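Weekly structure sync, notes
Attendees: PL (lead), two postdocs, one rotation student
Agenda item 3: pending single-chain targets
PL asked that the sequence for the first pending target be pasted directly into the notes so everyone works from the same version. It is reproduced below exactly as submitted, 621 residues in total.
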Amino acid sequence: MKNLYIVLSFGLMSISLVAQNKDTKTADKLYSRYEYVDAAKEYQKLVDNGKGDAYVYKQLADTYYNMFNTAEATTWYAKATETTQDAETYFRYAQMLKSSGKYEEANKQMAKFASMAPNDNRAKAFKENPNYVPKLVGKTPGYTAKSLEVSSDKSDFGAVLYGNDLYFTSARNAARKNYGWNEEPFLDIYKATLGDSGTFSEATTVSSLNSSFHDGPLTISTDGNTAYFTSDSFREGSFERDKKNKLKLGKNNIFKATKDGNGWGNVKSLPFNSKEYSTSNPSLSRDGKTLYFSSDMPNSLGGVDIWKVAVNEDGTYGAPENLGSKVNTEGNESFPFIADDNKTLFFASSGRQGLGGYDIYQIDLSNGSDAQNLGKPINTEKDDFAFTFNKAKNQGFFSTNRNGNDDIFSATPICSVDVLTTVTNAKTGAMLAGSKVAILDDKNNIIATETSNGNGEVKFKVECDKAYTIQASKDGFEGNTFPVAKTKGGEAKITAALQPIDVIVTPTEIILKPIFFEYNKSNITQEGAFELDKLVQVMKNNDEIVIMAKAHTDSRGTDKYNLDLSDRRAKSTVQYIISKGISASRISGKGYGESEPKVPCEPCTEEEYSQNRRSEFLIVK
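Predicted structure, written out during the meeting:
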């Protein structure tokens, strides 16, 4: 049933006028009324009577696609595509194959779609990363998912928790007449209350908002006095007449209601509603200043996009604004939910690289970052949508048809820490975009590496109660490490201030801090790498300089052993410099063993030994 609010009527009238004929008239009329159950029966009769053709097969496939019957849709798309179809048919076919877990076959259909619509962003994303599924499946889960007891054997979706009241949309009201889409009753808004035991009460209808048409989902203001909700435009007598098929064609519209005693009253249609397009699935920011919603209004990038509109203090509204390509695609995006921080947006999309059907994504609207797929177990091969989150209860809710019917699930966050690192110039405070940032565990294993955005920022999600280290570097700056303390969750903010490289260059030598080695070892240490990066920068800035690296040991061990060890250290130093893009012709190295101590001593302290284990860099040209 939720498809009514995702694939709006704009995207459903896909019947080819050329292919229609007197035989398909009855089925086409039912299809145009969104009475898909009966439409499928009529198209099937045509097939059974030998009147099936590419048009009938496609209509059967689209009918089952709109009911999200993946098995039947896949069968009939396979038949339809035996004859060349439009590009969108191949995309839908791929979606249904993915929803059945047939990713290799889905890629074949996506390849056909991409060849027919090369400028479509969905096609471009596929070409850039066709085998994204293993990485997505292997993504570290951010939540646990569990079916919620408020679900029924009918469609239930769009749950959002305000205080202890869970509002959601359901087709469970058997007293209502059935809707031809899938032969379930019309939708109503319901409410269930969270008790002290952590379970919900039996759901009851919110009668003061419900009408004789479809109603829900809704969003409520922070003070609890204003509700915005979806309903049919028939509610206000707004519709278009299809005289040929004797139809009244309505749209989804957003309505506003205000608290009236124990119920709701003063229901008004929003001024940007229209009988030309639909608006639905509202979500009000917690500061009450912005209303997010989905619509197929003009200037949408796809069939349905996510939009926002300013809510002014005087009760008026600004002009609706499309959220653009960071959120919307040529496919369908719907069910926006703006989090308590007024910047994190959750939404459902069929146009992005997901696991199948509609997947749920998250994006930070404040920093220009890309939308992130929430991964499993929130997303599956089926339709997953309508994610909301209550910060006070630390509890999320979403809807899914993974069990064959639209049901409501809870989403409990797995304890994690968002490590937000901002890389800056230590002298000026300027943000350093394009910095290389890695996060390491307590054993110095690199967990992930990212490049900082335009604001010098990188965000990593890691486990609670563990210490980490941020390692940051950028050309022209000294690399450094920064500790991340253990925390119980939430966000850890780290400022990685990097010192600009300031190297002393004499006519005969490049003077760095000594490149110390661990006792009896020749590998480059992390601290040594930071210093060698300064040398690399000098050599890149002065492309005629040729360097000879001298490596030294302390006096422990035999002369021969120390000479061999220092030679290995010299070679390690040279190889590190070459690995950073410096030509091998510009760097050489030689070991001097213990023959040239920096600190002559006998016996030596540990500090004196460490100073003698070093590298030096002479300018030979």
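Discussion points:
- The longest strand covers residues 416-425.
- Confidence is low (pLDDT under 50) at residues 6-18.
Action: rotation student to compare against the earlier draft before next sync.
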